[in-house]
Amino acid sequence: MQKKVLMIVNPKAGKAKPKAKTDGGLFDAVCTFCSAGYLVDAHTTQKRGHATELARTLGPDSDLVVCCGGDGTLNETICGLMACEGPKPPLGYLPAGTTNDFAASLHLPRELLAASRIAVSGIPTAIDVGRFNDRYFAYVASFGAFTQTSYAVPQSLKNALGHTAYMLEAVRQLPSIQRVFSVSITADGENLDGDYLFGSISNSTSIGGLMKLSPNEVKLNDGKYELLLVRNPKNPLEIQALAGALLTQNYTHHGIVYRHVSHVEFSTDNDMPWTLDGEYAPSVPHGVIDNLNQALVLMA
Q1: Does 167 score more than 50 pLDDT?
Q2: CA distance 39 to 34
Q3: CB 148 within 8 A of CB 273
Q4: pTM for this entry
Q5: What is d(CA 202, CA 137) in angstroms, rounded to the nearest whole number?
Q6: 279 is catalytic
């Protein structure tokens, strides 16, 4: 029986539609799958959550699921695959967004043709998947300063300016960076209650295209996520020192909490919205975040 690949394409992702990319784009990617013996079942997303619906309903009948879009489309595709009962097909990723944090961690090429070749002939690699209450995420759940950057930038501005759009939005948010969140946090049994400007639980070397983690610290299938919490500085000197520590990735600074963890519980009385892989998640008073070790197989 001929193998089948389900292609889920977000036509609005990135600086231009996939078909307009200079490497031959989506057409060449489809040809790659056909040459590898796959019957291609391609679908473009029509609305928010559509990629999840496609992956959940059509994924179980596919030998390979390929997501073509940005980190948000990847998030939706993973959510759909995690909802499938029984064995889950391997996942291929053709990065076509503006920032593509997770693709950078995976060292996936931005050219669709090269990425499609990896999807069919790369190494099947088990990756961890995060669970935030009843939702899933691929590489980051975050709150506080800059977490609104990804979903606050209009798509038209992302298309026109690419990564610069995220930087401009981050600058716009600077006046509100002093907003502090009082959070009760337990990470693998350790009490980390405090007042924080920012927090993230991630499995990526890049968060929102703005904050960086060392590749030596991030393992995508070790059952651990990287917890990064930024404390509230008390004066201008502390702000300056904290900024320098973040820029130089000095996570031993006393204003930063940095741990490798698999289970996090939190509670807060604040209105504290989150983002999951750059997608908005509303504030919740209590939450549980778990690392689901090697829950999916990705072609890398």
Answers
A1: no
A2: 6
A3: yes
A4: 0.84
A5: 9
A6: yes
